[in-house]
Amino acid sequence: MSELITPEFVDLDLDAEDKHAATRRLAELLVAGGRVTDLDGFLADVRAREEQMSTGLPGGIGIPHAKSMHVVTPTLAFGRSPAGVDFGADDGPARLVFLIAAPDGGDSEHLQILAALARRLVSQEFTEALLSAPDAATVAGIVMREVVPS
Amino acid sequence: MKFVAVSSCPTGIAHTYMAAEALEQAARAAGHEITVETQGAGGAKAVSASIIADADAVIFAADIGVRDRERFDGKPVVTVSVKHAISSAPDVITQAERAAREAGASVAAAQGAAGGAGEGAAEDSGGSGTAGLSGASESSGASESSGASGAPEPSGSSPATKVTSGAGVGTRIRQWLMTGVSYMIPFVAAGGILIALSFMIGDYEIVETELSSVVEDFNPLSSTSWAALFYHVGSSAFGFLVPILAGFIAFAIADRPGLAPGIVGGALAMSVEAGFLGGIAAGFIGGFLALWISRIPVGKALRGVMPVVVTPLLATAVTGLIMLVLLGGPLSAAADGLEEWLNGLTGANLILLGALLGLMMAFDMGGPVNKVAYTFATTGLAGAATAADSTNLTIMAAVMAAGMTPPLGLALATVVRKRLFTPAERENGRAAWLLGASFITEGAIPFAAADPLRVIPSLMVGSAATGSLVMGIGNTLRAPHGGIWVTGLIGQPVLYVLAIAAGAAVTAACVIVLKSLRRAPDEASPATPATTATASAPATTTGSATASA
Q1: Which residue of B8, B42, B248, B365 shows the fewest CB atoms closer than 10 Å?
Q2: Domain residues for A62?
Q3: Stretch (H or E) spanning B195
Q4: ipTM of the complex
Q5: CA–CA separation, A93 vs B457, rounded Å?
Q6: In chain B, what are the domains?
Q7: What residues of A are in the B interface, CB distance below 8 Å?
Q8: From the candidates A20, A65, A70, A110, which is the catalytic residue?
Q9: What mean pLDDT do residues A139-147 have?
Q10: Count of domains for chain A
Q11: Cellular component per GO (chain B) (predicted)?
């Protein structure tokens, strides 16, 4: 099974004017890495999810995500935005953006890794480690170490 | 304590698990055990029946329907949005603690007091719960619950159907009423305060201002313009009280298909002047019709259009028929009869007449009985061309005082015995001071609708006391409304205020006694009767659907 995240899916200097632009930037990384087959199709799915309810969470986190037929394998793209991107959280813009791509009808082994990831997202240590990680390889390392399916 | 939780969200890959983790951490931190069923895309591993049986309370952190929710029937439930569970998990755990304790308390109360209790309250673990708010993500932020003590309520609706097997009838009815009330309260507060403001900055004749004058001649520098604006906006908000109450009672019963019949039935209750009691009836009628119709087995072809077309259509039509023909006709005849009888009482003992008018004013607050009493007084006022005709002026004074007492008495009760009221009711209690002082009796409706059997008699006793006191003192009033803002038109205003205060104290005392009787004696700190209050404000989706009444 391919890795949930690799350094090529990390953007530590995510500079985007809004959440759609930020999502697009990260999704482009997934397309380049062969994890997503159709950029616009995938973005439409993410957007549909986002419109149901914004995915911003307290503590400066945004988690745009979708189950999409354009996703090959469950993958996380991670962006860190020094300026912040508004994902609709009450307490302000998101500095950490987790774009979670899940294949449509993925088997449960696939989905378990995403469930484990989601559970780590509520951990402050986890997000703080990501916030202070010096480079993309460190980010990918933290995620791979911390996210272990139960 | 032991809790069970279900988390679910639209996509089922992120929030579901984040909420589960957050709840687990918060429960552990508070020293509780929790088992979370994550109903995510990966399928749910169902919690076992024995874990559910052992649980003290259930938490639904769900933005979409909870699968197999009937497994949890009868347990005290706290419902929150999945996001709220993530961002404020400790609060949610606190709510669950409260719901569990409260349920325990009401079981104790039911067992202890047994005697006259209704069939429902005893074994169903009373507690709180969310009445049918699961269906729609936009509604899921509001968590309802109740606990305001369970007795069989008058409602004319059929008792438990199959789905209600878990909880007793009393509990269910209370949950339905509380759902309606919680959505109605913002309208009471907004409308009532605006109308009070209009009396404050205008004078009582502001009600004569035409709406068209606001539209065409609004002058931002004129206080009269502002008063007229506030009055009309406030009145519009009040037009929604009964439809929203009825609509969300029906929503609680039948979910979304109940909304149209409930709201329309409520609007029709206004048209036939059936007041909020008519609205409660409309909510139950519309809700149960929608529920029954939605359960009729239909072919696959029809199934898709049932909830959006067929069920609302049929349920609304039949609710309308019942409200207008079966209820409206007899009600109007009864009101006429009551009016005639009241007019025939001329020459009766004035103090008894005051008490009677007080009883009528407080019985249904804007409903038919209240209207008969109020019209009796204003007709007399219009006839009292000369100041010499002081009896009619005194009757007007008594009626207004008796109409001011209910909100004031309840506001007083919420301050004196906070624990007997839900947080939403306590908020409403704050507005009720101003509403009562302004003779806006509707300020008491949320309390009365939530717990009619205990609140309405209390209001009647207090208003009867005030009514007879005013008649005995012989206060006079030359305006048909306005509350304390027309003090200049009241004879012996100091005694008048004392009469109102006395009645309010009587009302507060009665409510506190009646509500306390139903509670466990040892319930000391916990059990404020609600786990209400959470994430998002209610009723973001309803406004546009309502007919003008």
Answers
A1: B42
A2: 7-146
A3: helix B169-201
A4: 0.89
A5: 53
A6: 2-145 (3.40.50.2300)
A7: 49, 52-53, 55, 57-58, 63, 65-67, 90, 100, 102, 106, 108, 111-112, 114-116, 118-123
A8: A65
A9: 89
A10: 1
A11: plasma membrane
